[in-house]
């Protein structure tokens, strides 16, 4: 399918497929009634998305594209040799105590029939359902075997089958990702993990889903597919195996010929859905798969959409098992590139797990989770990649804490900048091996405290109407008639920052007639389905009044949290929650559609809304919910060290009302205020009684901090907060926009006396009141504004019990 734009962003996981897009990016597939679903695109969309410190996605793509180009040149010149890679599989058969061969506790024969189908499909095997005579059809030259050995090196009585007595009868995706996988996975550097489960009622249409490969550099995929503890494929027990190879009553037509696992394995090896997960013109990043307007079902051979005949027989469509029989040469090149370059894929053939005997000395090998970014004070997790099953490990970490370890996969803290060696000695009964990597770990002093984002420096600041993507009105990233309730940006946190002290958000639209109106700025962990927002870690109410002032001044709104927010060195989300109780408007600035490189922007849809058919979690990437490829202007303020934080008992008060301010994060504190009323006052707490809007600054010391200062503004009520016209009268303001003078004419012969007061967009009075002088049937007033800063102002005209409010823009 021709490359155009990244519509979905990342994971795919599809065994059954259509509604999979509703499940945060994973590749997923769903049963027949009513439609199959594949959840890979959903589970993956946030299963480790962005790597800002590892180089740009374009750099990764350039390297990968060079590899693909070389593969294609070698193939054209006949210089390639038929090299068959054999991948060892372990099937985690999750049951509830049924006898083997009964219900969910599938028989060995049924599992073997599934592996046979994989080999037929990936080898384009003549005389089987996996053969095709399509001119672009490909033998992928990948084979699969049931591993002869378990994860400790012991020979298995049932090769490649790990029977798991489940702790529950059925499994939701949340429980699979959070409970089942982490407690049962085998080392994905050596095994292809396949979990066979009964999905819960919420996912009853799901056939399967997969996790995309890590760091593939492939266009259309995130640079981080997901962690090792969740790497692999999940399929329903009702679609594992082939009804043509035995009598297996649990299999359900038309998904009873084993093609769900073929589809999901394609995702696991980096393939996208053949229609590009979008309308005509969307891209699966493979040149020899025809365009399509969406998934096909059944087996509509010859169907035409997007002006071409659809390749409904392709394994990455949603057609019936009996219909599928094609991987293309372009898809092969993509999968071969993944097997050569992607961690946890390029090591799968090293262990010789398909052999009948594993013997000989171990061969040492290891990797880390921080190859591209190690900050002073951060943790590095080392993963053993040694082969021939060592049973002893002896690590030495120059500059690390601890300096040595005998664990298989230790975690080490580097507290000082520098360049350090790492050494590993592994042993088993046959012998030992040593691997020393010189200057392997580089710990940087820089970047310990920073703010970062998901958009390029030259992005196009945009306020996109949601009508560009759906029939709703309002803003894509703000209030709209869809009543979307929250927006977030996903951050992979590659460098392992431990704390978030605040966030900068650039809003582009705000209005409220209620000066008490607020939005919630929230930090979530990324433990929802497919790395969607999970539990809230911190929430801060922000007055629209503050946002109004920042919008008028053209700056981002900086929010400092009231306490240090732990990130646990893990991925996280930051965003805004809104409500629809008040008559206000708020919207976040984003990039233009098509400018994002990965699907980092998420939206929370309301239950029962027009997008409710997406199903599952209410959180979805914008690419899936609306087909919008954007990044929002949200920049978390993070660090390895904590920062000074400040909390206020009230944000909006009547003039003179008491406010209690508390500081945290340091051992020594000093307070000051911008009005001079508070000057060098020591201590973590002060009590203030502001008579006007005042900003208080707390300075902290005594500890190693990222940010030693924090500010909080306390707003006083009773002033104008709206910047929209709330009353229409026969009034002329000129020039508007204006410069050094403001003129007002009120044409109303019934009004004999009126006063005008100018306010900043924050609601603070500017200068004194001016009386409108009567002239004929008009009232006139002029004001010298030459000393005022540029920005948006509000004019309030009062006459008796009548108030007229208008806005005026000063341009310089």
Task: Describe what you observe in this structure.
The structure is a single chain. With 812 residues, this protein is mainly β. Helices cover 11% and strands 32% of the residues. Strands 1, 2, 3, 4, 5, 6, 7, 8 and 9 form a nine-stranded mixed sheet that branches.
Give a nutshell description of this structure.
With 812 residues, the chain is mainly beta. The strands form 11 sheets. Strands 1, 2, 3, 4, 5, 6, 7, 8 and 9 form a 9-stranded mixed β-sheet that branches. Strands 24-23-26-20-28-29 form a 6-stranded antiparallel β-sheet.
Number of strands: 46
Overall SS class = mainly beta
Q: Report the principal-axis shape.
A: globular
Q: How does the major sheet shape up?
A: 9 strands, mixed
Question: Which range best describes the helical content: under 10%, 10-25%, 25-40%, 40-55%, 55-70% or over 70%?
Answer: 10-25%
- C-alpha-based Rg, rounded: 31 Å
- The CA-CA distance between the termini, in Å, is 52 Å
Low-pLDDT stretches: 1-34, 42-64, 612-616, 719-728
Please specify the SSE layout and strand pairing.
Blueprint: E1 16-18, E2 25-29, E3 37-38, H1 40-45, H2 57-77, E4 85-95, H3 108-122, E5 142-146, E6 161-165, H4 173-184, E7 192-197, E8 206-210, E9 233-236, H5 259-268, E10 304-305, E11 308-309, H6 329-341, E12 366-368, E13 378-384, E14 392-397, E15 404-405, E16 411-414, E17 418-428, E18 431-443, E19 449-451, E20 486-491, E21 499-505, E22 507-512, E23 518-525, E24 536-543, H7 544-553, E25 557-566, E26 572-577, E27 584-588, E28 601-604, E29 619-621, H8 622-625, E30 634-639, E31 645-648, E32 652-653, E33 659-664, E34 668-673, E35 681-682, E36 685-688, E37 694-701, E38 709-716, E39 731-734, E40 741-747, E41 755-760, E42 765-771, E43 773-775, E44 778-784, E45 791-799, E46 802-810
Parallel strand pairs: 3-8, 4-5, 4-6, 4-7, 7-9, 32-38
Antiparallel strand pairs: 1-3, 2-8, 8-9, 10-11, 12-13, 13-16, 14-15, 14-17, 17-18, 19-30, 20-26, 20-28, 21-25, 21-30, 22-27, 23-24, 23-26, 28-29, 31-33, 33-36, 34-35, 34-37, 37-38, 39-40, 40-44, 41-42, 41-45, 43-44, 45-46
Helix pairs in contact: 2-6
């Amino acid at each position: 399918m021709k490359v155009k734009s990244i519509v979905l962003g990342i994971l795919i996981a599809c065994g059954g497929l259509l509604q999979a897009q509703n499940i945060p990016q994973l590749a997923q597939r769903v049963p027949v009634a009513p439609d199959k679903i594949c959840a890979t695109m959903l589970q993956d969309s946030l299963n480790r998305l962005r790597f800002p410190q590892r180089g740009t996605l374009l750099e990764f793509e350039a390297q990968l594209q060079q590899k693909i180009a070389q593969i294609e040149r070698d193939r054209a010149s006949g210089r390639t040799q038929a090299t068959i890679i054999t991948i060892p599989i372990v099937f985690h058969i999750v049951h509830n105590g049924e006898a083997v061969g009964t219900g969910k506790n599938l028989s060995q024969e049924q599992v073997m029939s599934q592996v046979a189908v994989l080999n037929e499909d990936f080898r384009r095997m003549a005389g089987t359902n996996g053969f095709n005579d399509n001119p672009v059809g490909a033998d992928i030259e990948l084979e699969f075997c049931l591993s002869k050995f378990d994860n400790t090196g012991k020979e298995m009585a049932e090769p490649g089958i790990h029977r798991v007595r489940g702790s529950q009868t059925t499994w939701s995706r949340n429980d699979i990702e959070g409970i089942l996988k982490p407690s049962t996975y085998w080392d994905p550097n050596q095994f292809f993990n396949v979990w066979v489960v009964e999905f819960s009622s919420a996912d009853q249409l799901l056939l399967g889903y997969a996790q995309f490969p890590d760091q593939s550099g492939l266009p259309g995929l995130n640079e981080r597919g997901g962690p090792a503890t969740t790497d692999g494929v999940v399929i329903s027990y009702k679609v594992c195996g082939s009804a043509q190879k035995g009598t297996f009553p649990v299999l359900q037509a038309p998904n009873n010929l084993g093609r769900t696992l073929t589809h999901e394995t394609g995702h696991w090896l980096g393939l996208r859905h053949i229609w590009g997960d979008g309308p005509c013109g969307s891209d699966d990043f493979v040149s020899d798969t025809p365009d399509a307007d969406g998934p096909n079902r059944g087996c509509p051979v010859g169907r035409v959409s997007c002006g071409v005949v659809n390749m409904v027989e392709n394994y990455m469509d949603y057609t019936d098992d009996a219909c599928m029989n094609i991987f293309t040469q372009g898809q092969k090149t993509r999968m071969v590139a993944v097997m050569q370059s992607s961690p946890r894929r390029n090591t799968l053939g090293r262990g010789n797990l398909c052999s009948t005997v594993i013997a000989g000395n171990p061969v040492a090998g290891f990797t880390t989770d921080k190859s591209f970014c190690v900050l002073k004070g951060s943790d590095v997790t080392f993963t053993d990649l040694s082969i021939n099953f060592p049973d002893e490990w002896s690590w030495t970490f120059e500059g690390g804490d601890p300096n040595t370890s005998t664990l298989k996969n230790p975690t080490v803290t580097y507290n000082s900048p520098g360049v350090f060696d790492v050494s590993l000695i592994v042993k088993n009964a046959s012998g030992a091996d040593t691997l020393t990597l010189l200057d392997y770990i580089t710990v940087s002093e820089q970047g310990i405290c920073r703010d970062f984002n998901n958009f390029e420096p030259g992005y196009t600041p945009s306020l996109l109407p949601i009508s560009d993507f759906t029939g709703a009105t309002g803003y894509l990233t703000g209030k709209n008639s869809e009543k979307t309730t929250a927006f977030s940006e996903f951050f992979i946190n590659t460098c392992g920052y431990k704390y978030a002290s605040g966030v900068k958000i650039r809003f582009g639209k705000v209005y409220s007639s209620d000066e008490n109106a607020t939005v919630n700025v929230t930090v979530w962990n990324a433990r929802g389905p497919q790395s969607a927002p999970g539990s809230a870690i911190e929430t801060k109410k922000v007055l629209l009044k503050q946002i109004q002032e920042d919008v008028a001044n053209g700056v981002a709104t900086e929010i400092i949290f009231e306490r240090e927010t732990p990130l646990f060195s893990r991925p996280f989300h930051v965003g805004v929650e809104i409500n629809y109780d008040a008559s206000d408007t708020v919207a976040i600035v984003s990039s233009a559609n098509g400018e994002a490189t990965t699907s980092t922007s998420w939206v929370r849809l309301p239950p029962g809304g027009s997008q409710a058919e997406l199903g599952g979690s209410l959180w979805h990437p914008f690419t899936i919910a609306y087909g919008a490829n954007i990044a929002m202007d949200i920049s978390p303020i993070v660090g390895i060290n904590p920062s000074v934080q400040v909390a206020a008992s009230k944000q909006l008060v009547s003039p003179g009302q008491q406010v209690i301010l508390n500081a945290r994060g340091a051992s020594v504190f000093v307070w000051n205020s911008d009005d001079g009323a508070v000057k060098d006052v020591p201590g973590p707490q002060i009590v203030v009684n502001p008579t006007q809007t005042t900003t208080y600054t707390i300075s902290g010391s005594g500890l190693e901090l990222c940010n030693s200062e924090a500010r909080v503004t306390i707003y006083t009520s009773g002033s104008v907060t709206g910047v929209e016209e709330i009353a229409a009268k026969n009034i002329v303001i000129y020039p508007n926009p204006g410069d050094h003078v403001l003129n007002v004419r009120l044409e109303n012969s019934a009004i004999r006396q009126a006063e005008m007061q100018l306010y900043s967009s924050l609601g603070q009075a500017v200068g004194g009141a001016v009386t409108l002088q009567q002239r004929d049937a008009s009232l006139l007033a002029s004001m010298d504004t030459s000393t005022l800063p540029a920005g948006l102002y509000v004019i309030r005209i009062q006459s008796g019990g009548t108030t007229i409010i208008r806005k005026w823009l000063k341009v310089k």
